[in-house]
Amino acid sequence: MQYRNDKNGNPISLLGYGCMRFTTNMGAIDIDKAEKEIMEAYNAGINYFDTAYIYTGSEAALGTILKKNNIRDKVKIATKLPQYLVNNNTALDRYFNEELSRLQTDYVDYYLMHHLTDFVAWENLKKNGVLEWIAEKKKSGAIRNIGFSFHGDTEMFMKILHDYDWDICLVQYNYLDEFAQAGRAGVEEAHRLGIPVLIMEPLRGGKLVDLLPETAKKMIKENPRGWSPAEWAFRWLFNQEAVTCVLSGMNSIQMIQENCRVASEAKAGEFTQDDLDFLEKIKKEINSKMKVNCTACRYCMPCPKNVDIPAIFRCYNEMYTESKHSGRWEFAQTVGLRKQNQTASMCIGCGKCEKHCPQNIAIREELKKADKALRPITYKVGIAIAKRFMLKK
């Protein structure tokens, strides 16, 4: 296993263990199977284990396994504050203490503000005294490093990133999402600031393996590198010095062994131009089912009514390159839950965007189609309820 250091010089394994996808049996985590897998990962050199308050049973399972095998102090635990549930400062201690109890520990190595999508969520935490609370917990040693996990756009990521002296951040990033959410610009900016970047969804929840077009699978199989679809995705991330650790929700021994092999071999800067060109061809095959030929160049922005045109088209396309649920879920997370309404319903049809679009997209017409597809009535209601709950509107 290879390691890259955190902000304080502590080594973090290049491959981290995402604890959201433990195998379940009759609705409960299969603790015996999870133990075998965690110990396989630990013995292979993985020292970073990521969980969260809302991952049902995950914190308790991880805590039990680490204590049973007497390795708590030999690994790094990352868990997360459910900031969307915090409405007063007493809630901070309540959730944190519950997490410590589940994890059977008296400290957390990396504590993240979970699922920030909008700056207003971070502002709400500050109003509830989170800065003072963090300072006290770090002073006592109960929290060693503080960070945040993010789902939103690049601009919002930059705003949160620069608002506090973070120790770490966790973002969704893969070769298909290179310019989505925090994106390459966000990852590289965090690295420039000396903030370690951890990656979630390196395989888009397995979609860069299981749901690849047959043409793309054939191209990968015939490539002289001999890498599997998953290996291409992991190596693309490991190739970047700005990436500190890539999380994988591994739930088989075979998967752990294969991913650990890749993490032990991959080197930053190993990709040739041919490799990069090849992945561009794979992306082209994946995107061949896209509804709108939007490249996210953002020449159409800013919109006078703040409609996030590129984000909407990206989610709309995802409905057809992956699944309807996937696209709608991505839309809900990255656009629907923003404090300011930036959905296509705000479009006034001025046409300013179309004058600047290098792809000559009929943006106004396509926005209507996208909005209808992304926001059926059930999703409109669900997003409204979630927005009211998470943003305290």
Automatic annotation (TrEMBL):
PROSITE patterns: 4FE4S_FER_1 (PS00198), 4FE4S_FER_2 (PS51379), PROKAR_LIPOPROTEIN (PS51257). Residues 338-366 form the 4Fe-4S ferredoxin-type domain. This is 4Fe-4S ferredoxin-type domain-containing protein. The keyword Iron applies. One of its GO terms (molecular function) is oxidoreductase activity. SUPFAM superfamilies: alpha-helical ferredoxin, NAD(P)-linked oxidoreductase. Keywords: Iron, Iron-sulfur, Metal-binding. It comes from Treponema bryantii. The keyword Iron applies. The lineage of its organism: Bacteria, Pseudomonadati, Spirochaetota, Spirochaetia, Spirochaetales.
